[in-house]
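Quick question: what would this complex look like in 3D?
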Amino acid sequence: MSESRVEIALRMLDPELQVPSYAHEGDAGADLCAREDVTLAPGERVLVATGVSIALPLGYVGLIHPRSGLATKHGLTVVNAPGTVDAGYRGELKVTLLNTDVRTPIVLKRGDRIAQLVIQKVERATFIQVEELDETVRGAGGFGSTGGFETASTQS
Ligand SMILES: O=c1ccn([C@H]2C[C@H](O)[C@@H](COP(=O)(O)OP(=O)(O)OP(=O)(O)O)O2)c(=O)[nH]1
Ligand SMILES: [Mg+2]
């Protein structure tokens, strides 16, 4: 099966950095690099520039996701994951990184691949205000209504 690709104009605001790219065929995320060295203390969050700006076509969104390896090995995540890049945004892509580790600082160097950009088609809604919504089996049940699992804090 062939994949469909959309062409997206991209500006390198820092031409020495690696152009966002997919590591493997079929990858959904193109890695974004840090523009500067940054050290995150345990629990600290920092807005990190990537040196890239893009022009998404209308009908597309860019989603900035954490990288699972950095999350698992070091506790590095994106605070607002996934970050939303609107089609009309022409500024530099930036990533609000968070060190979730309670003990160890995370040292990032300029050029390190810190997050990944997923491009998706997106639907916009026309919101139609009504007095009542249709009935469903789930109804208003949520937030664990189907059950969860027991932990020390939930056992009485
Ligand atoms: O992780 C992110 C999230 C957002 N953006 C940029 C692109 C996006 O189009 C813009 C606004 O993002 P968002 O709508 O999430 O932020 P906001 O706090 O609602 O700001 P605004 O009032 O400008 O919409 O900021 C990033 O570069 N990285
Ligand atoms: Mg917004």
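Answer marked as accepted. The pocket of deoxyuridine-5'-triphosphate (ligand 1) is lined by residues 64, 80, 83-86, 89, 93-96 (CB under 6 Å).
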